[in-house]
Amino acid sequence: MLAAVHSMPWVAVRPGQSIADRLSGLAPSAEVRTFALADLPGARSPLYVGWALLLSLLVVAWLRPEWRRSVRVGTAVLSLALTFLTFLPGGAAVRASGFREADGPSTDFLAGTWLALVGMLLVASGVSTLAASPKPSTPPEPTPVRPTPAAVTVAADSTAPADPTPIFVPPPGWAARPRPAAVPWWRRPWLVTGVVAACVAGAVLVGALVWHVAAHPPATRRGELAALVVARPADSAPARPAAVDDRVNVPQLLPPGGPDALILAAQLLDVRHAAGAAWTRPDTASVTVTLLQFDSREQADQFQQSYAEFERRARGRGGEVGIPDVPGATAFTGEGQGQAEVDAVAHRDDIVVLISADGGPPDTIAVVESLVREQYNRL
């Protein structure tokens, strides 16, 4: 279980829905971002360390029976800490989601969280049910018996028959009753009750997990990225985008060129998810929006720099324009046959935004800047 929860959906983040909104019955936000434990490196490391310590305590309790009482105490403390750490990735997911704190983003814990709790409880209960080794007890040494005067008289009489059987007289206050045998763990009521309660709690958690997965299937990353693409205007005609269902049409996305285009195409191999949209405006401008999600923020930043350098060499620095309110975003303008050609690039976290508009009037640059700003805010 603990190995499986590494890549399972762990937490979902929604904007603008507080606990009071849920209790009042308001519909949840359609915009949701799901994170697996593997997506939250800062929050997963303490859990990995805690799970390793818990498993090591199980091994120690098995190999060293005389330490089991101390190991049980350590397991109880570690279980409480792991229960807290299991829900800690919720805050990291809110920070990674990019939602504004003013929107009051809320978290929903998914299958990975509950399965990790069940696995942790099973290992902890395994440590607790191991019977402690009893301390070795040495029987008390018998107190030597002093001979009585009658015994001395009998010993002095040579005619008295010798009795080979030794006579042992217990000292006063010594209990001659045999010591009761150790009771096995399955006959101890309090321990059996604890095991049954743990099994019932595990069954309830598993049932809640199955119900939650069946009633709330986690959203996929592909669907989330596609939902973040800006909507097509109502007065435009749909066209073929450059990225659909994590597949990128490289010739459509990147203009043909020399080694620079090959470098950009090679960097596209690091794209994890891709989505896009395209349409044709009433003024005949063809607009294409593409989102590329890389494996890391550094790879996204490197692709943006390579794309910007490619555009500078193709168009010259005279057509480079910064986009206000979007950090690091750049638009490159040009004209062909009296019509504007605009390509813009920006990135937020690990997602690169590429927007192009070809064949429109000279004021198409304002349209592209507005699209870049809207797409950046959606991310």
From TrEMBL:
Q: Where does the DUF7373 domain start and stop, copy by copy?
A: 281-368
Asked whether the UniProt record includes tRNA processing among its keywords, one would answer no
Keywords for the protein's UniProt record, in alphabetical order: Membrane, Transmembrane, Transmembrane helix
Q: Which domain of life is it from?
A: Bacteria
Report the InterPro entries cross-referenced here.
DUF7373
TM spans (from-to): 45-63, 75-94, 114-132, 190-214
The name this protein goes by in its record: DUF7373 domain-containing protein
